[in-house]
Amino acid sequence: MPKRKLIKAGDAVKEEKTAADESVPMFDALTAAEQAADDEPEYRKVRIPSHRYTPLRKSWPLIVTPLVEQLKLQVRFNPRSRCVEIKSCETTTDGGAAQKGADFVSAFAMGFEVADALALLRLEDLFVDSFEVKDVKILHGDHLSRAVGRVAGADGKTRFAIENATRTRIVVANTHIHILGSAANIKVARDAICDLIIGAPPGKVYNRMRTVAKRLNARL
């Protein structure tokens, strides 16, 4: 009788894998531009408050230039909906460009300067945190006005001191407070602002904030 050739189970699996690999066609990886061209265009709308119309009109070239040249987006202002409309196109290479552009325009609509809002496009670890004075403590009338005054300070000195110590940018818009910076620096600035709203003495708030900011900078 002819001898049968024994095949091990592992060799059979290897042969099956080799045959399967040969039957699967290989394609080159798509570039970012090709992936963006295959995807559907993304839309974003950012509503502009009425008190920001004049700054938007004056700073429109500074806002459009980085969105069009850097992010390769299409931008327009719709006067009917009072929104800045952002759309990705075939030349857009970054998949998250539309959202980055919307965050940039939203920061400007909140009251930040164009130069400060541009940092959202250049750096990846920057965020905007927004809250209201009433979220910290329920106040009404003159008490609410005094709390906002403690945060701003005389001629904005308190706000500038917090910005310089924590390396953030702060906008006080009526009873809303917006903070632009890294996550750790935002936390330090937010804690200092909350202490001022509650009624803590400014001297103690400054000392505590500067101590925490120095420790944070030393870690970095």
UniProtKB/TrEMBL annotation:
All copies of domain K Homology, residue ranges: 130-198
Asked if Cell membrane is a keyword of the record, the answer is no
Q: What are the alphabetically sorted keywords of the record? A: Nucleus, RNA-binding
Please give the chief subcellular localization of this protein. Answer: nucleus
InterPro entries from the entry? KH-I_PNO1_first (IPR055212), KH_dom (IPR004087), KH_dom_type_1_sf (IPR036612), KH_PNO1_2nd (IPR055211)
Top-level taxonomic group: Eukaryota
Instruction: Give yes or no: UniProt keyword RNA-binding.
Output: yes
* Compartments (UniProt record): Nucleus, Nucleolus
The UniProt entry, under Pfam families, shows: KH_PNO1_2nd (PF22891)
What PANTHER family does the annotation carry?
Answer: RIBONUCLEASE Y, RNA-BINDING PROTEIN PNO1
Family label: Belongs to the PNO1 family.
Protein name per its UniProtKB record:
RNA binding protein
